[in-house]
Amino acid sequence: MKAIPVTCAIIIHQEKVLVAKRSKSMNLAGYWEFPGGKIEEGEQPEGCLIREIKEELGIEIKIQSPLTPSKFDYSQGKIIELIPFICTWQSGEINLLEHEIIEWLEVGELPKLKWAPADIPIWMELSEKWQAFRSISSHKQC
């Protein structure tokens, strides 16, 4: 079965990372993830991610760098290919439309969360490469 391509944003701001808790109306309710969404037919991953973050959180982001995609078979043949990008918050006020809550966490706090399975390799890679990414968030003025 073909994997469903899904993008996610690792949004870095003031040396912290935005994480989102899935709401009760979502599959995997109560699990944490990096926000994003399914790529529509004919859409590029980067365009999808910018659109999804605007729809879900109401903010503008700038994509900085890709990370390694993660595949996970969730059951009954539903395979997700999660395509992550390091991003920075550019403008707008966060407005939760799909998730229960969001948190800005230090990378060292990420292992304490109950993660959606496809997101686990992504936060692990982020942790390994954190020193290279942590300073990119200092460009946004608040």
Automatic annotation (TrEMBL):
Q: What are the transmembrane regions?
A: none
Q: Name one GO biological process term.
A: DNA repair
- Enzyme Commission number, as recorded: 3.6.1.55
What does the record give as cofactor?
A: Mg(2+)
What InterPro entries has UniProt attached to this entry?
MutT-like (IPR047127), Nudix_hydrolase (IPR020476), NUDIX_hydrolase-like_dom_sf (IPR015797), NUDIX_hydrolase_CS (IPR020084), NUDIX_hydrolase_dom (IPR000086)
The entry lists its GO molecular-function terms as: 8-oxo-7,8-dihydrodeoxyguanosine triphosphate pyrophosphatase activity; 8-oxo-7,8-dihydroguanosine triphosphate pyrophosphatase activity; 8-oxo-dGDP phosphatase activity; 8-oxo-GDP phosphatase activity; metal ion binding
SUPFAM superfamilies per record: Nudix
Domain Nudix hydrolase: start-end pairs: 1-126
Question: Which keywords describe this protein according to UniProt?
Answer: DNA damage, DNA repair, DNA replication, Hydrolase, Magnesium, Metal-binding, Mutator protein
> What does the record give as the reaction this protein catalyses?
8-oxo-dGTP + H2O = 8-oxo-dGMP + diphosphate + H(+); 8-oxo-GTP + H2O = 8-oxo-GMP + diphosphate + H(+)
Domain of life where this protein originates: Bacteria
At the top of the EC hierarchy, this enzyme's class is hydrolase
What CDD domains has UniProt attached to this entry?
Answer: NUDIX_MutT_NudA_like (cd03425)
Pfam family for this entry, one: NUDIX
Q: Which family does it belong to?
A: Belongs to the Nudix hydrolase family.
Protein name in the entry: 8-oxo-dGTP diphosphatase
Species per Swiss-Prot/TrEMBL record = Algoriphagus iocasae
